[in-house]
Amino acid sequence: MNIYCSLLKNLRAYSIILTLLLSTSVLGQDIHWSQFNDNPVFQNPGNTGQFDGDYRFIANYRDQWRSVTVPFNTVSISADTRASFNKNLGIGILLFHDVVGDGKFRTMEAQLNMSYMLKLTADSTHSIRPGFNIGLNHRQFNANQFYFDSQFDGVQFNPALSTNENFQSQRQSNFSIGMGAIYQYYRNDRFNFTGGFSVFNLNKPNQGFFGSVVERDIRMNFFAKGIYKLNYDWDLVPGIQFNKQGAYREFLIGSSVKYTLVNRLGEYRALYAGAFYRNRDAAYLSIGMDYQSWFFGVSYDVNFSKLVPASRLRGGLEIAIRYIMHHFKPKKIVHRICPDYI
């Protein structure tokens, strides 16, 4: 019985340590996505309003580490458009909600993003779009979900016992600012390039819970993507992204291929399939489909980091949905009036 209790206590302790380690690693970092080009407003504020259409709505969902611990869940929703009084001005909002670990460490953020397109050539083939970002961030956790040594009564863990821990606060709110810019070369829908650089958390907001100041590190992002026509039906869609935040580094590279099923007489459908690599962490496959104004994408990470003994190669499932709304623009018909003398 004593051996069993000791083993149980050790397993509980290890689970707490694992949860704290995972939560600590996330505490100082922003969220991240595998389908990085399918969350453009989060990627760079300069992407705000940069699309063909009137309104763009995007939803992203990520479920990660289900085989290791309590799964990490992230949901993001964004909407952006161009101002009616100035089509060069892009305006957008982004909301995300992230929950990790046994203690339900929760991050919620609301962002306002703005951008402005500067044409480098008269035909807009070359353009630069600087952007600005401001966000309100709220973080909290539930200490009642953790187990502590003082709750071991000699036989088993008893959650009714006091934790003997004094948490000054389980909630923290702050705001952050960021900025970025993108460059675009656009010849047509099937031959273009976009690249950008952005920085977030420039004010290094305090996110400490225990009285001490814990600054949120500046996050730097670089990305590049494009589309290249291979033949009548096929396109190559490569992408690359690099993130740096404190001691954390993330490098992603890969490509999708696009096959256009139909694109005529108002009908449009296309399929995507891709493979990507995240340096020293995972590789993942993605598939997607364009259907008229909709896009649906799914990816799955195969983990091969040092966490493999626990993850068993299982990483995360991610889903992206995009809808672009186009206003109906009736054709303007000019009527000619015949003169009386004809």
Describe the structure.
The protein has 342 residues and is mainly beta. It is 10% helix and 52% strand. The protein has three helices and 15 strands. The protein has helices at 2-27, 40-43, 308-311, and strands spanning 55-64, 72-83, 86-100, 105-116, 118-119, 126-140, 171-188, 191-200, 219-229, 234-245, 248-264, 267-278, 282-291, 294-303, 314-325. Strands 1-2-3-4-6-7-8-9-10-11-12-13-14-15 form a 14-stranded antiparallel β-barrel. The longest helix has 26 residues, at 2-27. It starts with a helix and ends in a 17-residue tail after the last strand. The model is unreliable at 1-28 (pLDDT under 50).
Give the name of the CATH architecture: Beta Barrel
Order of helices and strands: HHEEEEEEEEEEEEEEHE
Enumerate the strands of the largest sheet in spatial order, edge to edge or round the barrel: 1-2-3-4-6-7-8-9-10-11-12-13-14-15
**Which structural class do the helices and strands define?**
mainly beta
CATH structural class: Mainly Beta
Number of beta strands: 15
CATH structural fold name: Porin
The averaged pLDDT comes out at 83
- What is the 3D form? elongated
Distance between the termini: 112 Å
Low-confidence stretches: 1-28
Helix content: under 10%
Number of helices: 3
Count of all domains: 1
Residues in β-strands, percent? over 45%
Give the name of the CATH superfamily.
monomeric porin ompg
Taking the sheet with the most strands, its summary is:
14 strands, antiparallel, barrel
Q: What radius of gyration results from the CA coordinates? A: 25 Å
